[in-house]
Amino acid sequence: MKLYQKPIHTLHQQRLAKEVTTEEIAQSVLQRITETEQRLGSYLAVEQSEAVMERAKAVDQQLQKGEEVNPLAGMPIAVKDIFNIKGQATTCASEMLKNFIAPYESTVTQKLLAQGYNLVGKTNMDEFAMGSSTEHSAFQVTKNPWDLERVPGGSSGGSASAVAAGQALAALGTDTGGSIRQPASFCGIVGVKPTYGRVSRWGIVAYASSLDQAGPMTRDVEDAALMLEAIMGHDKNDSTSLTATPPDLMASLRQEVKGMKIGVIQDLDLSACDSEVQRVFAENLETLKQGGAEICPVSLPNLQHAVATYYVLAPSEASSNLGRYDGIRYGYRSPEAKNLGEVYQLSREAGLGREVKLRILLGTFALSAGYYDAYYLKAQQVQNLIRAQFQKAFTQVDAIVSPVTPTPAFKLNAHLADPLQMYLSDAFTIPGNLAGIPGISVPAGFTQEGLPVGLQILGGLLQEEKIFRLAHWFEQNQTLSPPPLAL
Amino acid sequence: MKYEPVIGLEVHAQLSTASKMFCSCSTSFGAAPNQHTCPVCLGLPGALPNVNEKAVQYAIMLGLATNCEIILDSQFARKNYFYPDLPKAYQISQFDRPICEKGWIDIEVKGKTKRIGITRIHMEEDAGKLVHEGEDPNASYVDLNRAGTPLLEIVSEPDIRTSEEAKAYMEKIHSFVTYLGICNGDMEKGNLRCDANVSIRPVGEEKFGTRTESKNLNSFRNVAQSIDAEIARQTDVLLDGGKIVQETRLWDANQRTSRSLRVKEDSQDYRYFPCPDLPVVLIDPEQVNKARETLPELPDQKRDRFTQQYALSPYDAAVLVADQAIATYYEEVIALGADAKKTANWVTVELARLLNENKQTIRECKIRPPNLAALLALIADGTISGKIAKTVFEEAFTTGKEPGQIVEEKGLRQESDQGALEKICLEILQENQAQVAAYQGGKDKLFGFFVGQVMKKTSGKANPKLANELMKKLLGPA
Amino acid sequence: MTDKIDVKKVARLARLNLTPEEEKDYTEKFQQVLGYVDQIAEVVIEGELSTKDESLQQLYRPDQAIDSSVHPKDFSPYLENQFFKVPPIIE
């Protein structure tokens, strides 16, 4: 097994045992990027090799001196190009921000910096995180490492393909309607969307503020715990960040699944899912049963309206959040603009992509006079209903499981002309965002074609420990025989 | 047809906090362009607002002072529109759940008290500034130092019927915010400004007419004048058979006319919705109780106390309390032993006149309370006459010198020595024998002439009472 | 819920310039997405549902002025004499 294929916690143990150096780890990942990036297109910007090696070397020197070193120190990690990293471009895969250099640091990357992480680059995404395939990037298409003719999912598709391909040991993503969990599932890695407010949003470009949440994308559950423990916690700069004591995730990994009550949503029609996805999910339930978990039906009657609800709320917030991209202070300004009106119209016309404009239009409409009550207000009420139904369900079960997506990774261009089909690929992940609850996507099997399929585990508000406990047990107690990557 | 005006005021008070509404940037005035800015008030990607605790406290204080209900779970909302001085393309304000609702204040017009309803008070952030006079005449320039400055918007019910009432209302709000210390009340700088909604309707009609909004009225006088002009304009339009258009009008204080700024259009759709970056503004009822207990004495209470404690007329008391600094000044003079009624006269007449003539505030005034108290003591103990005192007062106002010192330097001490005065009186009688004869022949009106001569000869320093007595004695009966 | 949406008017509100071809395309997509979204009208809401998020508590910032380390010159290509310069404002 190559170094770039291993999880961070394993590599950390190995370097403590002097079996490997951080430099060797960094070298392995950089080498992998060189070999594969042209075919994959995961990155919008890759750090200079010298800088990455320099940081790795510094950690090795600390180790040699016998100093204590964090597991994440020196480990090559990728960051979705939606996080501000001071002095670097934050493009959000948009022409609008192509030349925008972030003058301040996001809280999440600041926290990783405190752990000594080794930034390898910034990953591709759907423009402003709007999309489920990373095809809506203004700059490039990212491929799925398991099948280069398929999408890696989105919007954190660059992060997912980078981790899956070994171009990074872990990555940061953001999840507004499934943008961490869906690409994690498509690419066969672990992705976590924490409880809304667990992780600070300061310095992360906003798409839909009440739903956006950052989280880790990793090779395995233990790495996800390592990463999430590093980035979560209250931040006074984000008024929606929670003051609740962060959970001890590492401790939760050592617990059994026996006796856990696991809910299966009665109202979810799986018959519309890809048959291979159905098969894998059935096998997953069997595994959990054999581990001593109790499978219980739970009722979430309004779940069928989740996608519709989301596509009112998220575009509404987006239409307001993206108003600031007006060409006045920073970002793209059309050179043809002769007056203020043209600065707005022409800059936004050329600076924003089609899907982004569609969502801005939808949101502007849903908030406009005469339509607010029927759309925004009603959607908020349905959201509250869904939230309340989840809360009730979590009084009966410890976790709820489902497939992450109705299908495995779809082909490039499959849904580009049909936004609704694209939106429906997030049908199982969107409810978690609407309810604000934590969710994790764990590799759960492969289709006959050799495409990864994930299992989604949702927990109650602030119940990250439970989903990590279940996810880790599941990961350790299933037999996966992955086919080789298409690289 | 007789028309009746219906007026409602929207007052914006800039809060005197050290930092902005949603970020820690300074609110101080006069910095270099865009110096007091940060990711939040620049509207940078990924920046998030953070509520200023003091701004919330100030809103609660004003709400309590104006008899409002304090909403314990109010909400911030986004008001979306594009303009270069609005960096996020939305203003964080409050919409359907403001922090204060359903209050009232009393105003006094022509000796009568009238209650004006307060619909709501809400918190919001100010916009930046646009400068049109830059290096390039074909460009505009944006300065965001003011962007994000905390404001309270105070919306009145349409209870106001005359420009006089509007002015009195505005003055009352001014005295409230300054008494509470939440706004410096400087209208010229725009720290307290007012938009007036005016409509007219036939007397007896229940339904409101179409209203217009006059923007940014930055003095009490402008409030009154613009409203009078707007009432006249609307009356003319209706009498000519025209229709009032709902529009925003801009008042030109120099020309004393208004012009249409923009007609209310469909495109003016602010798309308000709850700000997802800010949780509900939860207020602990305990905090409200505490604020209520620690509320300073307000103008109305102070006025009532002044009339009782100092036996002042309601009018004098009202004049004194209109400006908290004046009221404080007044009480400082009293505390030094001066007579309450006499002090009130000096403060409301002489002092007010000089301040007004010199465009000074009481804080800038060189006559401090101990100086005025000393002056009043000099009058009380007969050292100077009331008339001379005015001269001393004016001198002290300009130079800031101690009244006692001025009296000594200028030799203004009152002549009360009976022997010396009698000698002067005799001299005058000697010099004016014809008048003496006329007086004694029955022209008693000449008495004033003799006293006047005494004052003239003593440069006004003669004790007037003594001069009278002596003359009467020396002249004998008329 | 919706009959004919004037996409052009919505685009004006959002300061988005649309070519005739885009207008046609967006109108189609708009109808398609809204046609789907309109299902939320069917959901029956019983009683007054709180829109409050109980898990969030309000934390205020003390009123303290602190100079930011971020300045417009760090990110803005549109500065002149420290102002953001914009083309003339013609309504």
Please sum up the structure shown.
With 487 residues, chain A is an alpha/beta fold.
Helix content of chain A: 25-40%
The third-level CATH topology of the domain at 3-258 and 438-476 in chain A is Amidase signature (AS) enzymes
Mean pLDDT over the residues of chain A: 96
The percent of residues in helical segments of chain C reads: 25-40%
E-strand count of chain C: 2
The rounded distance between the terminal residues' Cα atoms of chain A is 15 Å
CATH architecture title of the domain at 3-258 and 438-476 in chain A? Alpha-Beta Complex
Computed over alpha carbons, the radius of gyration of chain C is: 23 Å
Number of strands of chain A: 11
Structural features, described:
The complex is a heterotrimer of chains A (487), B (478) and C (91). The mean pLDDT of chain A is 96. Chain A has helices at 8-16, 22-40, 49-64, 107-114, 157-165, 181-187, 221-231, 249-252, 275-290, 306-321, 340-351, 354-367, 373-396, 419-424, 430-435, 464-476, and strands at residues 43-46, 76-80, 118-123, 170-175, 190-193, 213-218, 261-265, 294-298, 399-403, 439-446, 452-459. In chain A, β7, α9 (275-290) and β8 form a beta-alpha-beta unit. With 487 residues, chain A is an alpha/beta fold. Chain B is of the alpha+beta class. Chain B folds into three domains: 3-289, no CATH class; 297-409, no CATH class; 418-475, Orthogonal Bundle (Arc Repressor Mutant, subunit A), CATH 1.10.10.410. Chain B is 39% helix and 20% strand. Chain B has helices at residues 53-65, 163-180, 220-239, 285-293, 299-309, 314-321, 324-335, 340-357, 369-380, 386-399, 403-409, 418-431, 433-440, 447-457, 464-475, and strands at 3-14, 69-70, 73-74, 77-80, 90-93, 100-109, 112-125, 129-131, 140-143, 150-156, 192-202, 212-217, 247-252, 257-263, 273-274, 281-282. In chain B, α14 crosses α15 (464-475). In chain B, 44% of the residues are buried. Chain C is mainly α. Chain C has a domain at 7-41: Histone, subunit A (Orthogonal Bundle). Chain C has helices at residues 7-13, 20-37, and strands at residues 79-80, 83-86. In chain C, strands 1-2 form a two-stranded antiparallel ribbon. In chain C, a hairpin with a 2-residue loop joins β1 and β2 (83-86). The longest helix of chain C has 18 residues, at 20-37. In chain C, 23% of the residues are buried. The mean pLDDT of chain C is 85. β9 (140-143) of chain B pairs antiparallel with β2 (83-86) of chain C, so a sheet runs across the interface.
